[in-house]
From TrEMBL:
Organism ancestry: Bacteria, Bacillati, Actinomycetota, Actinomycetes, Catenulisporales
Record CDD domains: ABC_DR_subfamily_A
Statement: the UniProt record of this protein carries the keyword Cell membrane: no
A Pfam cross-reference name: ABC_tran
Name of this chain's protein: ABC transporter ATP-binding protein
Amino acid sequence: MTAILEARMLGMTYGRRRALTECSVTIPPGRMVGLVGPNGAGKSTLLKLACGVLTPTSGSISVLGRTPGTGPEQLARVGFLAQDAPVYANLSVGDHLRLGARLNPGWGQGFVERRIAALELDPRQKAGKLSGGQRAQLALAVAAGKRPELLILDEPVASLDPLARRAFLEHLTQSATENGTRVILSSHLISDLERFCDYLIVLVASRVRLAGNVDQIIAAHHRIVCTRRDPGALPAGLEVVSAEHAEHQSTFVVRSDGPLPPGDWVTQPLSMEDLVLAYMGTAESGIRSATQGDGGAR
């Protein structure tokens, strides 16, 4: 089956600034993908490359088996929603639906009308008069109404309050289920990704630090607490992701391809947020991070 996205040594520069560096990742079909990383890590650049808005300066990228942005057919297969959830302030909700129907040959009018009714949006209301959460929901309804095979969302809930975020994610889940759409969702809110995604990509300092199936990633990583020691004193086969030291104690997040070997330490569970923060911290700590499989980066 065709990968959702496949990047090989993908690079992107803006003048002298490098936004992506040797990015190699393959997202298997059928995944709901979470993309996370600090500001400036390259998340938006990767998503714009996937949409065909940008052209890479090195390497290659394919989406659903084809080069992004190459012709009307490929454009119809991919939907994109930017962080500011853009709508036209002077157009009504109904105008947005009519515009969507005119521009998209696969438009799902019945689906969008049901979503607008469920959201209790007045079709006569100007988009500029809607609340931030309502504008985001309208933008999502229009993007999903395109009925794309892949819907790419670049931090669409960043400015929403918790209730609006929950409503947005519920709408997103329903849209994906009803239309059979795969999703790549970029967000700083890891708790939202935990509820929605089964595949995770972590970008740090323009590079893919981690990519793979969430369950496999969590199973392959461990937090261990032991008497203070250098990372090099740990058993062979453990790759250190992060290390913290107190006066008499060390705490490591490690990756192990097999069962964790016995040792004089206490093992503690890791959440997705713990793991993401450990990898994001590698940019400052200088520890070289690991990458995880399921067709992901190596």
